[in-house]
Every structure is written in structure tokens, then in C-alpha cells.
Amino acid sequence: MTESMHDFVKAINEAKPRWSAEGVTLRLGMEADYFPGSEQMLKELVGIYEWDYVIGSVHYIYGWGFDNPDTQDHFENYNLENLYRDFFMMVEKAIRSNIFQFVAHLDNLKVFNYRPDERLLLPYYENIAKALVETDTATEINAGLYYRYPVQEMCPSPTFLDVLIKAGVPLTTSSDSHFPDDIGAFIDVNTRTLLEKGVTEIATFQKKKRIMKPIKDSHPF
Ligand SMILES: [Zn+2]
Fold first, then answer.
1. Interval between CA 105 and ligand 1 midpoint (Å)
2. 136: CA distance to ligand 1 center in Å?
3. Which of 63, 102, 110, 193 is the most exposed place for a label (fewest CB within 10 A)?
4. How far apart are CA 173 and CA 186, in angstroms?
5. Residue 109 Cα, ligand 1 centroid: separation in angstroms?
6. How far away, in angstroms, is 6 Cα from ligand 1 center?
7. Which distant-in-sequence residues (6+ apart) come within 8 Å of 186 by Cβ?
8. pLDDT tens profile 157-197
9. Residue 216: what pLDDT?
């Protein structure tokens, strides 16, 4: 809430020729918080500019920004099974809003290691995979929680990722960089994970159209 969307769009568009000369195609994207009931407002907001993609995310539940380290003790106030049930209900609503080209970090509620036995979460994983397939929405492997938060696990978890791959959900990779130096962080690792699990294509986006591209395993390990 410190920069204007207009300035951001302008900065990216102005940088396109400079990067193009280096052989890099910049795409214009935005991550937008999803709040149930705000669909119309959000549609109007994102409709102002011509995005290549809009990422949908859930970072708040019951008005609580659950990835804020200062309020992590709030997890102690909840029954984790119910908390995850309500969280995944919101993620499903975000997916079914059809506002987003892909929905981000599907299980970021685990950020501070509060998670019930994953076997209890499997029905939710299946349900989210179904919603993504039915709405033709992609998701990502996101490294943010791996290198920046106590859980030190990619989103989605390996078990969740297997469910998504089995359902045929299109996937992209994200470094979730908060700083320029983090752009591309762990993309090589997550690309290798996808290849090892038999995924051969990666989702890219242009003017809100998804374009699947073959994965190139060009990174030395
Ligand atoms: Zn996010």
C-alpha cells in the first residue's frame, strides 16, 4: 500500500525495451489479495490495466494477516483442522471467482509450522485440484516460504503437488521475490522437481492467455 498501481505499470512498460535488448521478455503481472465478497471491486480494479496475468492470493483469514511474524501466536487460538478447512474454502472461492490466471502458494497457512496431520488435509487438496481444473486456472510452485519463513518448505507441499500433478493442473514457478536480488530464486530447484515428477510443460501468460511451454532443464546442478 505504498506505491501506486499506475506507477508500477508505467515502470514495467518503460523497462520492456531495455530488457528486450538483453533477450528478456518482460510480462506485466500483479498479485492481488482475495477477500470473499470483494470480487466486483477487484474485477474493476484489475480491469483498469492490460495485465499479462493477475495472481490471486489469500494472506488473511478472519481479518488476520496470518503470515505476519508479529501475530504468529494467534495460531494457538484455533483448532488447526477447522482453520485449514476455512482457509481452503477461501482459496477455493478465489479460484472460482475466475479473476485470476493463477492462484498462488496454495498452502501458505503452514508458514509458521502450524499444520495438522497432512492425511487430514488430503480431501482439501483434492478439492482445490478439482476447482483449478474446472475453472482452467493454473497454480505455481512458490519458493517464498522455503527461503524466507520458518516452515522452509515450498508451496505446495510435496504431497499437495503430487495431487495437483495427478489432476493435470497447469503449473508455473515463482520465486516470490520481495527484492530484486531474489528474482528467480530456487526456480532451478523447482524446475528440477517438476521434471522429476514427470511434468514437461510450464505455464506462461500473455494478455491473460495461458501459454504452455516445454520445460528446459538448462541449469547445472
Ligand atoms: Zn503472496
1. 7
2. 20
3. 63
4. 9
5. 11
6. 20
7. 143, 146, 147, 154, 175
8. 999 999 999 999 999 999 999 999 999 999 999 999 999 99
9. 78
Q: Is 7 exposed, middle or buried (0-12, 13-18, 19+ CB in 10 A)?
A: exposed
C-alpha cell at 22: 538483453
Q: Which pLDDT score, from 0 to 100, does residue 129 have? A: 98
* Burial 192-221, CB ≥16 within 10 A → b, else e: ebbeeeebeebbbbeeeebeeeebeeeeee
Q: Show the beta-strand stretches assigned E in 39-92.
A: 53-57, 60-61, 64-65
CB-proximal residues (5 Å) to ion ligand 1: 57
**C-alpha 54 to ligand 1 mean position (Å):** 12
Q: What is the pLDDT of residue 10?
A: 97
How many whole angstroms separate alpha carbon 151 and alpha carbon 129?
A: 23
Cell of 19: 530488457
Please provide the average confidence, as pLDDT, over all residues in the chain.
95
CATH 2.40.10.240 holds for 26-214:
no
Q: How far is the CA of 73 from the centre of ligand 1 (A)?
A: 20
Which DSSP symbol is given to 155? B
Q: How far is the CA of 78 from the centre of ligand 1 (A)?
A: 22
